[in-house]
Amino acid sequence: MRRFNQLGILALSLVMLWSCQENETQRPELEEVPQEVLEKVAVLGFNADEVKMYDGNLFIEGDIRISLDQLDRMSPSEGLPVEEHYHTDNLVTGTPRTINVFVNMPQKYKDATDIAIDRYNNESLNLTFNRVSSSGQADITIKASPWYYYWFGILGSAGFPENGDPYGTILMTRGYYDNVSNINGLATTIAHEMGHCIGFRHTDYMDRSYSCGGAPDNEGDGGVGANHIPGTPTGPSANSWMLACGSPEGDRPFTADDKTALGYVY
């Protein structure tokens, strides 16, 4: 009887493993985004072109993840974060403040996160980043994205602050990043996603063709306002760490304009 039970458990385990592998090799279908959702995305100041939806989540501007529930709680009067050289009110509060970051990924990602953290901490902001060894201590957790990200061409994702706290999860698609050889390029990607978590938008939000190519695409401020930070460009900012697109191997440490924006907001 005991041998039978062991064989039964083994058979069940094999079936479950086969089922998981089957799911991960079949291309999932994106859900159709309702027109009213696209309209709300646009009103809130996001780019409503090429919005992807799956499993109750919207993927906007390539790497911004917003659940449908979060979208319903957002309104233009909230003061949504606009790109880095502009600001509104929905940022991390309670500063000066330490933000703990936990990395649940291989060592290379931990090393790149340490570089990204040093870049922020070297700016003497009212936010201090600290890498911790357990998820229970974390304000932001960096971990591998779900299997379907790779199928949809999503390199990674993060979100924006809510209730004065940083967005809590950065998801990275290992199929894209495991083979990155430039650790500083990987650090730039992580610093970029951390930037979203504390409220920064893409520097070229008003014309994503600047870094992504294609036709000019002016997103505008979506009715939420855009308070320009003195001393920074009003248009796309060359080599900014918050450009919408870039090579995973490309290293973009903070530019002078990035530093001005970071210092002004935090």
TrEMBL record:
SUPFAM superfamilies: Metalloproteases ('zincins'), catalytic domain. Pfam families: Peptidase_M57. This is Dual-action HEIGH metallo-peptidase. GO terms for molecular function: metallopeptidase activity. Gene3D superfamilies: Collagenase (Catalytic Domain) (3.40.390.10).
